Amino acid sequence: MIDLNNILENAKYVAILGHIRPDGDCVGSCMGLYNYIEANYEGIKSDVYLNPIPGCFSIFANAKKIVNYTGFDLLESIDDFPKCVQGSYVRKEPYDVVFALDCSDKKRLGPAYPIFKNAKKTICIDHHMNCDGFADIDYIIPDYSSTCELLFDIFDYEKIDKNVAECLYTGMVTDTGVFQYDCTESHTMDAAGKLMDKGIDFSYLIEHTFYEKTYNQQRILGVALQKSKLTYNNKIIYSYIEADEMEEYNVNTKDFEGVCEKMRETKGVGVAFFMYRQNDGKIKGSLRGTANVDLSRVAGNLNGGGHKKAAGFTLGNIKMEDAVEKVIEEIIKEYEIGNN
Ligand code: 5GP
Ligand code: MN
Q1: CB of 233 closer than 8 Å to CB of 328
Q2: Which residues are near ligand 1 (CB < 6 Å)?
Q3: How far apart are CA 116 and CA 132, in angstroms?
Q4: What three-state secondary structure class fits 241?
Q5: Considering the entire predicted model, what is its pTM?
C-alpha cells in the first residue's frame, strides 16, 4: 500500500491527471483525490487537468475547478501545452507531485504528459491489467474494479467526507456497471457500503451518472441498435455511427457512453463493438464482452487497450467498412485462442 502522507510530505504544488476522454472512474478518482487533499492537507495547492468531462460528472464538488485541455495526442513540451487549455491556468514550473490516475499508459495522458514528465515526483495509481507502470511510484492492482476502489484503501476512512465519498462511489458504480460486472468483488461492496455511511445520495448518483441519458443520446442509441449487425455465428454484434449522423442527431463524441454496453446485452452475443468518427477523422471504438475473449488483447492489437471485458481502441482515418473488417478479424483471432 502506498502512503499518501509520505508522498505529500513537503509538497506544495500537486497536479492530478487522468486519461484522455475521461470516464466516471477517471473523473471520480481525480476529483476524489482533489477533494481529499483540499479537506485534509492544508497548504497544498492542487490542480486537476482533464479533457472536458461528461456533463453528468459536473455534480462532483469542485468540478468547476478542473482545467480543461483539448486534444488527445501526446505532447512532449510544456511550452506547447498552453495552446490546449485556451487561457486557463497552467503552471509552467514543475509540480512537486503529479498523480496519473486510471491511466494505463503514459500515452493516455495525451496533451497533459509534459506536466507529468516535468514533475519532481510522479505517482501512477491504476487497475488496468496492461498497465506496466510508468511513474516513480506505481500502485497498480489489476484485480480491482476501479481506481476509485484503490483510492478508498489509500485514504484514511475517517478523513473521507461526503464530497470525496460521492466521487469514489460514482467511479465504482460506473466501472462496475452498478456492481454487475465480474470485476466487482466483496471488497468492492464493502467499500461501497462504507461510502454509503458517509451520507451520500447513492440512488441519485447511480441514476444521474449511469442510467440517465439525454433525448439525443437515446435517439442515437436507437440508430446504433437499428443499424447493428451480427456475424461469426451471431456471436459478434457491431455497429457504427458516421459524422453526418452525429450532425443529424445533434450528438457529440461524449454521447456514446453506454451504447456498446447495450449492444452487448443481446442474447447469444459474446462480443460487441461500436465505433464512431472523431472530429479529426479518426475512428474511436469500444469493445464489450461476456465470452472468454480477452478484449484488452484485441484492443492492444488495434492501438488501444483496456480490460478483459471492456476495452477501447483508435484507428486512423479509414473507411468504416475497412475498420469493421479489421476489428472482426482481431476478435475472431482471440475467439480461436479462447476456443469458444
Ligand atoms: P471505452 O470503450 O469506454 O472508451 O473504454 C473501455 C475501457 O478501455 C476503459 O477502461 C478505457 O480506459 C480503456 N480504453 C479505451 N480506449 C482506449 C485506448 O485507446 N487505449 C487504451 N490503452 N485503453 C483504452
Ligand atoms: Mn477505471
Answers
A1: no
A2: 19, 23, 104-105, 108, 286, 304-307, 310-314
A3: 16
A4: strand
A5: 0.93
Residues near ion ligand 2 (CB < 5 Å) are 25, 102, 146, 175
Distance CA 327, CA 273 (A): 8
* DSSP 8-state code for residue 54: P
Q: Whose CA is nearest to atom 7 of ligand 1?
A: 311
What cell numbers appear for 205 in the block?
448518483
120: phi then psi, degrees, rounded to nearest 5: -75, -35
In one-letter notation, the amino acid at residue 57 is F
Categorise residue 179: left if φ over 0, alpha if ψ from -120 to 50, beta otherwise. left
What's the alpha-carbon Rg for the chain, to the nearest Å? 20
Ligand 1 atom nearest residue 257's Cα: 3
Could you tell me how many residues make up the chain? 340
CA 40 – CA 42 distance, rounded (Å) = 6
Please, are residues 285 and 304 in contact by the beta-carbon 8 Å criterion?
A: yes
Q: What is the pLDDT of residues 289-330, one digit of tens each?
A: 998 899 999 999 999 999 999 999 999 999 999 999 999 999
- Other C-beta atoms closer than 10 Å to the C-beta of 339 total 6
C-alpha cell of residue 239 = 455497429
